[in-house]
Amino acid sequence: MSSTLRLAIGSVLIGLIVLGIKGLAWWITGSVALYSDALESTVNVATAIAALIAIQVASRPADASHPYGHHKAEFFSAVLEGVMIIIAALLILREAFDGFLNPVALDLPIEGLLINGAATVINAVWAWLLVTRGRSSKSPALVADGRHLFTDVITSAGVALGVLLAVVTGWWVLDPVMAALVAVNILWSGAKVVRESLSGLMDEAVPQDVLDRVRSIISTEAGGAVEAHDLRTRHAGKATFIEFHLVVPGEMSVFDAHEICDQVEEALKTAVPGARITIHVEPEHKQKHAGIVVLS
């Protein structure tokens, strides 16, 4: 079992534990804000399950129906998570509105805050782990899941502040007001997750720093070639697709041209883990004088 899959399974288990703890905090206090916080955690569980399924699908090898692999399955999961974050925020806004119209005093607020605080610490640690490991393993689903949990941490902090202020001042309306403010922040986070995930589905190019690295490697490692042009890149989960045309002298043998391609591919795979490289070799008269200059 891969480390990515283990983390995805762990997210489901952590989500269930945190949901139980937050549900207890709401049950003993009757707080609208704590109820909203627990409601948002139900989405954590659902999105963790979605991420688990997506990672399992994305790990499948390429087949006749999917010759480029199943890497984009993780982007679909990330989009789903972003949508569910937005739905959770809207549900919280609805509860906050009801609470604003009918504010009530809370039962055992300090005890509820302490219980909810324990769940927040668990979420914060796990969110950091998911984002860190997700980035290192190039897993959009894990990164999206981690960012989602970070929004839950922010939610919990805002909720705790609202409940504490309500207890200190006796203004119980602060409980739903704070829940509404945090819901707005969650809406922004959900929209960001959706936007970034859609960029992957739309075959967005690799970041500029990676593109510069690719161009530099082609320039320095393709000794014997004339130039490279029509460089195109895209990323899909753990895979990074790199395609370009390599112009070689017309008299060069197929064997020598293939040796140059092998050298460039090896260097690119070392610098860009998960790289899938396609090189189209062309004779010298195809030179465009506008591509990557090869340093002999």
From TrEMBL:
Alphabetically list the UniProt keywords: Cell membrane, Membrane, Transmembrane, Transmembrane helix, Transport
- Might you name a Gene Ontology BP term for this protein? intracellular zinc ion homeostasis
Question: Which residues belong to any copy of the Cation efflux protein cytoplasmic domain?
Answer: 207-284
Query: Which molecular function terms from Gene Ontology are attached?
Result: cadmium ion transmembrane transporter activity; ferrous iron transmembrane transporter activity; zinc efflux antiporter activity
Query: What membrane topology term does the record carry?
Result: Multi-pass membrane protein
**Bilayer-spanning residue ranges:** 7-28, 34-55, 75-93, 113-132, 153-171
Q: Which domain of life is it from?
A: Bacteria
List, for all copies, the residue spans of the domain called Cation efflux protein transmembrane: 11-202
Q: Name one GO cellular component term.
A: plasma membrane
Principal subcellular localization: membrane
Does this UniProt record's set of keywords contain Transport?
A: yes
Q: Sorted alphabetically, which InterPro entries does this protein's record hold?
A: Cation_efflux, Cation_efflux_CTD, Cation_efflux_CTD_sf, Cation_efflux_TM, Cation_efflux_TMD_sf, CDF_Transporter
Please state where this protein is localized: Cell membrane
Q: Which PANTHER family match?
A: MITOCHONDRIAL METAL TRANSPORTER 1-RELATED (PTHR43840)
The UniProt family comment states: Belongs to the cation diffusion facilitator (CDF) transporter (TC 2.A.4) family.
Q: What is this protein called?
A: Protein p34
Source organism: Gemmobacter lutimaris
